[in-house]
Amino acid sequence: MIELDEVSVRYGSHEAVTPTNLRIETGEFFTLLGPSGCGKTTILRAIAGFVPVASGRITIEGRDVTGIPAERRGVGMVFQNYALFPHMTVAENVAFGLKVARKSGKEISRAVDAVLEATGIERHARKKPAELSGGQQQRVAVARSLVMGTRVLLFDEPLSNLDAKVREDMRHEIKRLQRDVGFTAVFVTHDQEEALSMSDRLLVINEGRAEQSGTARELYQSPATPFVCQFVGAANEIGPKVARALGLDAARRHFVRPEHVALAQAGDPQGVEATVADVDYLGSMTRAFLDVLGEPLQCQVPSGPSVDRLKAGMSVKVNLSRERILSFDGSS
Amino acid sequence: MTRNHWLAGAMTFLSLLGTSAATAEPLVVYSPQGDERAVWIAEHATAAGHDVTILTAGGGELFDRILAERANPQADVVLGLIDAAMATLKAEGLFQPYVPKWADGLPEVYRDDADRMVWKFWQTPVVIAYNSDMLAQEDAPASWLELVEDRHAGKYVIGPATWQTTKTYLIGMLLRFADDGGEISDDGWDFMQRLYDNAIVVDSADAKTAAFVNKEAVIDLNWFGGVGRLADDVGYNAVMVDTEGGTPFIAEGIAITKGTDQLDDAKAFVDWFGSAEFMAAYAARFGQVPVHPDAIAAAPDSVKRNATLLRPQPIDWDVVAPRIDGWIQRIELDIK
Amino acid sequence: MTPSGMSRIPLVRSVLLVVVIWCAASFIYAPIFSVLRFAFAPEGDIGLGAIGELAGSRRVRTAIVNTLVVTGLSIITVNVIGIFQVAVLEYLRVGGRGFLRFAFLTPLIFVSVAAATGYGFVYGQTGALTRLLQSVWPALPNDWFTGTLAVVFAHTFLLTSFHFLFLRAAIRRVDYSTVEAARGLGASNMEAFARVVLPVLLPTIFATTLLVTYKSLGSFAIPSVLGGRRFDMVTELILTLNSLRRPDMAAMLSIGLGLAVILCIAAMQYVERRGSYVGGSKTPVPVERIRISSPFVNLAVHAAAYAIAVIQLIPIALVVLFSFAPARSIATEVLPSSFTLQNYVTVFSQSTAFVPLKNSLVMGASATMAGLMISLFVVNLAHRHANVGTTSLDLSFMAPWILPAPFIAIGLILTYDEPNLLVANRVLLGGFWILPIGYAVVSIPIMMRFLRAAFFSLDPALNEAAQSLGAPAFYRFLRVTVPLVLPVMILIAGMTLNVILSEYSMSAFLFNVNNKPLSIALFEGARSANPEQAAINLVYISLIMAFSLGIITLADRYGLGGGK
Ligand SMILES: Nc1ncnc2c1ncn2[C@@H]1O[C@H](COP(=O)(O)OP(=O)(O)OP(=O)(O)O)[C@@H](O)[C@H]1O
Ligand SMILES: [Mg+2]
Known about the structure:
heterotrimer, A: about 325 residues, alpha+beta, 2 domains, six-stranded mixed sheet, C: about 575 residues, mainly alpha, about 0% strand
């Protein structure tokens, strides 16, 4: 279990991470999600010990590691570019940590062989990193930490260097390894699809602040803040005129997801009058940009014969069901 | 292991500081005598029971070095620097008084009765010689002052003014233009300018030799022993001129360094070195002319003859020494 | 990690830090201070007497004039030749490009006193070329190759290395589409070059010009060997003043030279900074070499290019050829008629001939090693912990970059010609180590520049990866950082050793009987009428060139310095 207790990080006068509390369970696949520059890497590096915390306490498996240098935290890290030592072979890269720990030669080679096999790169043991593909390099990077018996592995956007196909494969690969070996994974990404599909639980971060943590479903269905609401999945903020028309509390902010906006024909007795401003055809789905009482609203509906008729300038009716509307206090 | 490498590296670096300063057991003698002569002296010294190490280098360099080491003298005895250099070192307070056993009977000019520090043991004239294969006697200069004549243009070589030999003949010529207070007249400096304008000027011994090999130079301004050596090296017959107005002589001295920790050994060495027996033996071996009458008497006939070959130009080095730097500087910076 | 290892890390680091700070204080600050003290307050009272005396000396005045004249002329001639060479190699289609490239590269391997003696050997009094020219033109005097003519000529063909390195790199960054655009608008090849290419190159040309100025102002070996009678440049005068025991005047003159050099470097940095904004297009189309349409111009360009190549190659070819010739054929034959390895055998078997080579290798190797260790330590420290302390340490060691070698040499002489507490009350002058110390001091800035570049191109994640695998700082430094910068370090070591083998400026001031280096032996040998000595010199020069060529080929492969 990794615990962050009121942890904050500063770069000079800039508070990159405001006091944050976080619990990551042992064996969990946990993701830090947030826009670029929000502090994901910083939190990860604080856990790894590469940046000192300004306040708070970090404990790993019950051990307070706050003041302990990175090399003695027993936390593995997989870097975005993998950071394999270019002057060492794959086997030497993997053996590095064991050598530091002064393990015997026999012990080292046994452990290295085992982990290379487990990660499926035993064939490349004698190669230099430059001779490997991105996916293979990543396996080496993971193997290098796993061989140490590391129970916590930190990943900083490890998939961003890969092309779409390999990326897809590697997601599964990492998940499989994590499940098989049973290590705790802390994963950083700004790709919400990646985050939602891989994680047991996530933390959404915004401008150095922890917004909400929970399972993907919780975050999507019951976002705690407007930011989470908009960042996890898409959401329309309902404008004041539409809100008044719907009888919503004017002191609060209201959101609705595009897929929860229902369209009806212009003559439909129910709903609010709207004009189609533009239509994007996305294949299985169609996205319509609407003008409702002079305020923009997006809707996303499954493509179909009736939807295909939508055209810019058409008049339609919009239905927003109350239970689909997500409301937050105005201050937040 | 790698860590030790680093430490070793640091230690290596610290050793850049220099070699150990621990005083060596043997007596350290600084001398400008060339290789062969230094070895010969050392061998004979050892045979006579003196444990010495002779450090040889050019005269100018040794002089600088002794000055530089003044706070931490490495030499116990300085041997063979010429009059002006010894006078300056003495004036700098680097020597220790000692009257050697052979001081008795030494002619006045080679003694140091005032300070009892520097004692001269042999002398060398600095002469004009010419390549008699190329130049007839009547075409050769008869005096130093004649060198500026057109007919000698480009036929003689002036070496670096830092050489003892060069310094000596330049001073010898300048002194002919000195007033009673030792000041050189404008005529003197004009003469010096013409002397340089008329000469081949070189800055190394090799370049000087080259000028003679190329047959450009036929007149050699050199110390007595150097004349024959150059002529042999290049392959010509040299004839020395007994110049009108006299030939400057340089005498080499010996002195004990102030602060030596082997004073007794140093005294013993000085006594042995200047003794008539060793001086005569050296004269027999290298043709060097000693100054002590007893040594001359014991020397071979050829050396006896050389002792009276040339008329000396009288020079009072104690007066001249403090002015030399200024003169050489003026020659180097304005005339050369 | 063993406990003993843990405690040793900071100890090693602190010891090294103390050593390095001591080095900076002793061999950089103390010498600079000595120069200033002797120049402005030789007797303890502040005064400018030295300036008056310098101005009063005829020889000093002529030397300053000579230096300025030579520099002015060299700037013009080096630029003409250098720009033409670059155009021939990179802009025009000229036959035999590989051959020309090699010829134009030779200033990189034929440097300093080796080049000067090489030129002296072929153009000098008994030189093969002098005799060749005399057979065509009997009136030519033996010593025709002296003074301003000889020095500027040598500069012209020896200082084009900066053009070869930097201007060629710059022209390759020119966007060829701009040339095509100009030609589409009706400009001829030459017009396009003058109007479009040259302006883009201008900042680089200006920077190379300043480098030539810097080199020419401090030129030492070339005027010493080739200048001849009554031709001095400023550096030679500093040496003379020093040997006349006028440290005040020597220090003052070296300050003057230093100011001129600093001015050059400041101007260069200004241009560099401005030049970086010029930036071409993002995806430049590489320059295509242009066929010269006019047959007459084409012929002229070919003729000029080959003439320059021949001028640059002949001294080298003759030096190498004659190094394999019997000594007696030197100064008697235009081309050797028989060949032998005897000269090489002599150099390696005769102690007097081998000693200077050995001295230079020992001093070069120790200066390089010490310099590398200091550079590595300082650069690593400044890289990892950037703060006022480490930055000023870094800048301290960079300082000699803007000071001419004679300045530092005079400083070292004035500081260590008497016992100095900084070095445990020893006298360094006259000893073996003063020269390698000088070599190290002037080599460190360039080492640091390359090392710093290497450190900045290192991925910091590698270090962190090692850290997260449990490796402590010193282990990471040795097992990750050092191996990664090792190729650069080896190259820098090679290049430094290469420079030191023919280093003349420092050597001329600081050498003595105990450490006479190769460059001084070359210099002295150049004056000798003894063909054996000349033969030994030729072997030295050939060895130096072979070593340089090896280093440059290596550097080229690693993409450092020299270039394809
Ligand atoms: N070494 C540093 N010094 C100063 N500020 C830093 C440093 N590293 C990061 N920051 C700042 O801290 C904030 C958080 O940076 P961080 O790298 O943690 O963001 P991130 O969420 O990982 O972003 P990305 O998705 O772009 O990687 C940013 O505003 C960044 O500019
Ligand atoms: Mg990041």
